[in-house]
Amino acid sequence: xxxxxxxxxxxxxxxxxxxxxxxxxxxxxxxxxxxxxxxxxxxxxxxxxxxxxxxxxxxxxxxxxxxxxxxxxxxxxxxxxxxxxxxxxxxxxxxxxxxxxxxxxxxxxxxxxxxxxxxxxxxxxxxxxxxxxxxxxxxxxxxxxxxxxxxxxxxxxxxxxxxxxxxxxxxxxxxxxxxxxxxxxxxxxxxxxxxxxxxxxxxxxxxxxxxxxxxxxxxxxxxxxxxxxxxxxxxx
Length: 236
Hints:
It is built from nine helices and eleven strands. Helix 4 (125-134) packs across helix 5 (152-165). By secondary structure, the protein is α/β, with parallel strands linked by helices. The protein is globular, with a radius of gyration of 16 Å. Belongs to the ComB family. This is Probable 2-phosphosulfolactate phosphatase. Pfam families: 2-ph_phosp.
């Protein structure tokens, strides 16, 4: 039987064996929510890069560039890290380059060892779960966290995915069980569950409460982003 495991922060990824695993990267506030939203709204592809310099290089080649550090847009780039910025019809068919504090770094760390890298968010939870049921591989959810530390919202997402897959995957590791139990206790009001979390406080100081509420909505889209040749595209 396949196994579902969790890596609570990219700094712990070296402890996980990925050669028979799909890595699902989750950065709920807000990178992976942006990726799912953008592809759902017609963006052609998103190229995640770890550094601002790589993103600027692609911008100079004609990509629309999104860069975020410490939850703020980096000066000189086209897009910030709000999912609402990815809904504009001018982005239909666009190729976007993206770098973020945690999410794109996590993708960069996972892509060399994983069988596949996919993108998870509450927004595409059901579609992602249904697809993973059809795959023959184990799954490791890589929580982007915040600068090497675990965070609440990515862990809750892991728990939600574990709950959705518990009949098809073994949940053997304590981290996965912790995430599942946390989600079971919080599922009826996710917004309240994260209300005093560090990243919510960080985002609220920037006045973007609407992003928080949006990113905690479940199953808005049936998009399953997958990394192909260094670029995220929709499997659908």
